[in-house]
Structure formats: C-alpha cells, structure tokens
Amino acid sequence: MSGSRCLHTFLLFAFFAAVAPGLCGEPSTRVTLTPAVVEAGSPELIRIAAPDSAKVEGEWLGRTPAFFWSRDSRAWFALAGVDVEAPAGLSQLKIVVTAGSSRADLSQSVEIHPARYRTTALTVPPRFVAPSAEDLKRIEAEAHLKQSIFGASAPEPLWSGSFRAPVRAAPTDSFGTRRVFNGKLDSIHKGMDFHARPGTPVRAGNGGVVVLARPLYYEGSCVVIDHGMGLFTLSMHLSRIRVHEGQRVVAGQLLGLSGATGRVTGPHLHWAVRWQGAYLDPAKLLQLNLNAVR
Whole-model pTM? Predict the structure, then answer.
C-alpha cells in the first residue's frame, strides 16, 4: 500500500472513530452552526469536520443544505438559514457523512428562537393594494417568471469571502416587520431597506450571475443575483439597471442606481436574501465572517 493511500485510510479511520459516539446517539462535536443561537430569519453557516473525500448530505426544515469543501478551512460548509416565518421550537438538522462503506450520522436537534419584529403602517397608491384585472395578469406572469428563476441555481458557490452592503447608506431595522398597507395587513417585510437617495450606486453584495434584470410590478426595476447553491440576493426599486441577465458579476460591481419604482412610499433600496425559498435577515448575513471559508 502506498504512503498516500495509507495516510488517506488513517484519516478516514480517525474521523469515524471520533464521531462514533454520535452513531450511538450521544452528542457530536463535529457539527458547528454560526451563529450558535438560531433565530427565525437567521442565515447559518454549517461546518462539518470530515475528510475531503467524504460525501456530506443534509436536510433541515424541508430544505437541503448543499455542502462544499473548503481547502482553506479543511472542512465542509453549507450556507443555509431559517425562514423569517419559521415557527419557534426544536427542529431536526439531519447530517450524514459517508466515506466508502463507512457512514456517520451527525444529526442533531436545533432550537429555533423567535425573533422580535414590529408592525408598521404604510400608505401606497391604491393600485398596489387592489390591482386591476390587467395588473393581476402581469403579477401572475411575473410570479411564474420568479418561480422559474428561483427554481434553478448554480451547483457550486459563486460567492467568495464575506458579503458586503450594496450601498453606502444607512439601513433600517425593517426586516421581519409586519406591514399594513392602506389599513390592510398585507405581508411581512422580507428584506432590508437602505435610506438611499435616488441615483445612489447599488453594487453586488458578492460574486454571482445576474438571473433577472428588469422592471416588475411590485419590486420595480429589480436585479437578482444567483450566488450558487440556492442563495440569491435581490435589489429592488432601482431607477436604472446597469447589468444584463446572464452576466457574471463580482463583489462591489455596479448593478444600477437606487430609486423609487414599484410599490414604495419613497426612494430607498430594498435588499433581500433568499435561500431555497427561505427569506433571511440581510443584516445577519453581513455580520457573518466568510473570509476563511472560500
């Protein structure tokens, strides 16, 4: 047996020996979540200590975290999260690591804590509360378009390093706010608003591919970036779009200019983070240190 093959066998044996207690139902220390306290709306960086030759599979809250190997950290990672509307309580994070004929179950219970969000009242043009028949056709067509866009994502991470704010402007704490439009409870605010003056440059929060760059009914002029493995960022209410669909962008690249298009009460940038249909708190994503991951 060659020296490299001996080393490979030894590493696999050491890994499965270390996680053997987890197979017997005892807590495993091989899975790490950051942030450690999981709240509704939290993006979560899941780290698995396993050899690069292993296969890592997971399931959490009906979604499938996609794991990738990090050469820098010598570990497996998935950038996942908990939807803003997820109920509080215990959830089951299922993790299975397979290497050859060996299999380790690293599943564990994860408590989801409630996040405290407020309710706010807003006034918008009546057509955004009671759309006309023609507008409803447009809204339906756009819903199908967005479903198609979010239904496909690059199989590998297109981002690199920590995410950055899309504009140089003060943010609000509006994520998760229950919004009452013209006296009618309509939705939960699933993005982060920035007090951006019209014409403020809006930039990519990280690398990816532009999968949508066009005006929409509610979102106004909108740019959506696929960052890979089901992770998207959305920049809404732009006055100008400076990229095109299919274009590869890097962190900090100009996407367009802020404005007040779509359903708005005034000029601002709405920036949203979506992972496999779950809307995550952008402020918490910006706080994650991903520089050592890839």
Answer: 0.85
Gap between the Cα atoms of 197 and 96, Å rounded: 48
User: Which sign does the torsion angle of CA 129, 135, 137, 141 carry?
Assistant: negative
Residues 11 and 138 in one domain: no
Calculate the dihedral angle through the C-alpha atoms of 194, 85, 233, 236, rounding to the nearest 10 degrees. Answer: -50
Same domain, 29 and 65: yes
The parent domain of residue 268 ranges over 129-172+189-287
Q: Which tokens go with 186?
A: 């309509």
Burial of residue 283 (number of CB atoms within 10 Å: 0-12, 13-18, 19+):
middle
Residues 173-214 have pLDDT tens digits of: 678 776 555 444 456 778 899 999 999 999 999 999 999 999
- CA dihedral (248, 141, 192, 187) in degrees, to 10, reads -160
Write the CATH number for 270.
Answer: 2.70.70.10
- Does residue 119 fall inside a structural domain? no
